[in-house]
Amino acid sequence: MHSSGSRLPRAGCTSLRAPPATRLNNLIAKGTCMRWIKRGVLAWVCVLSMCAKSPVPKDAVIGVNGEWIMADEVAYVAELLRKEAARFSPETAVEGMSDGVRKSTAKQLIADRLMLQEARKMNITVEEARFDTLYEEFKKGVGGKAGLTRMLTMTGQSEEEFRARVRDGMLVDSLVKLLLAGMDSVTIADCKAFYDENRKRFSEREKVRTSQILVKLSDDMSAEKKAAAREKAEKALAGARAGEDFAALAKEYSEGPNAATGGDIGWFEKGDMKPAIDAAIFALEKDAVSDIVTTDIGFHIFKRTGAKMSEPKRFHEVQDMIKTSLELKKKNDIITSTIDSLTAAADIVYVDTSLAP
Description:
globular, 4-stranded antiparallel beta sheet, 2 domains, 13% strand
């Protein structure tokens, strides 16, 4: 039997906004499986917390080999992912809770469930001492016993159920470590080859800093509420065009994740944002304000607050970053291949067909 060991680095430890490493990671290894590389045991608990088994229970939306993913699980995890994206990556925050986000969440939950099932098939076990240590770490992290009680109430679990989910997280974490054991190392030659093939990524590029006012829309809004949202956005735009302080207007009108900080969403290069937003921002002069830009989640108003050219990077400056990114790609490829194989052999039922790929 395999036993669980130390956990992988937690997702929040490496900011998704760290330029240029994040964009390089995305270039090298696009896809949903990077989370298994960065996620730790405790992060697994969030997505393994509401597993139900046959027969089909009320509110089940997806079946995975006879285990059922519930509607509230999809909503809960989608919101967790949205908040994490909003914290670390404003360009994903403006995408909002679209149908695409729900589908991506469903895909992740299916993969998570398949990985847990595979860990059990492989008879991976959890060391009790390690489990006790990790569980106590988690309790401290959420504010002790009182904080844990609040969290359990919020997620509708008993402590016994939650302890089982922590064990599940440790099983999956150990499976990931087994899959990645013996992975080929990345050489200097590998790094240099990538640098030479992607010199444009490391050349001088224009960057802009932007602030945003967002008035949200949702699919279930009535026509009257959508009209009111548009009117609110137009009022904010009128204030900005009249010379009122944009940061103050953002604090007053914006419903985006950066409203409290005056709407600042940081520095971006061309191509980082959705095409419509990208076009609006890069068409602006410094301190200019855009027209209202409509996306699937709302009405956006942007102000370009800064501009600069990034310095070209020499190989020795980015070698370590490239190596890390190539290693992540190798790991991602291994996990992706495993999940693809498990998915192909799985019995997956979409009760809610809107979550199907």
